[in-house]
Amino acid sequence: MEVLINGQPTAVAPGTKLLHFITAKGLEPKAIVVEYNGAVLAPEAFGATTFQPGDRIEILRFVGGG
Question: How much is the pLDDT for 63?
């Protein structure tokens, strides 16, 4: 199945949870912001969110510096 992640078509297996996708990419759930179909999700919702065909996901990382 295909979803858009940060504007790029991405194939994911049906039933894939957002939390699994995030951790498989080596991202720390508490260090990112996820917009799922236009709504910002709390990190607690990542494990309950399952990708659906055509979903649009934006993943933003916090960057620190000085």
Answer: 75
